[in-house]
Amino acid sequence: MENGVSPEKDVHLIYTPSHNNALQSVAEDKAEAAILGFNIYKIITSRSHIRQPTRVLAKTKKIPHMMFMSPVNVSQQEKDQYKDVLLKFTADGKGKVFFEGIPFINIETISDEDMKSLEGLLRILEQRLQE
Questions:
Q1: Which of 17, 21, 23, 92 is most buried, taking the most CB atoms under 10 A from its CB?
Q2: How far apart are CA 45 and CA 52, in angstroms?
Q3: Cα torsion 85, 90, 92, 97: sign
Q4: What are the pLDDT digits (tens) for 5-30?
């Protein structure tokens, strides 16, 4: 229980198919709050009618939200080539035009620490997939 709120008693979760649907539920008074990626929130609220009736209540720590992965049968040489190309696609390099149009900063190598920080979320996802 944090701040006097018991998730089992005081919170009813509604799962929506997208970040946009979650925010739309708040704008249409179908939900009191939504959880979504902040960058997605900035995109949606800057380009839609949803902007006015919403506000940020809280932020969580930053976590990696998108990863590029390769199949196991790809050679190490090919993996290294793909990685090299992606890491050169930067906001101040070949990706300049791409990154100007979105609120993301750059593509970075994910660390072991980043992966470890996702373990708790993985357990939640595994539980959801079993429901």
A1: 23
A2: 8
A3: positive
A4: 776 788 888 889 988 888 888 888 89
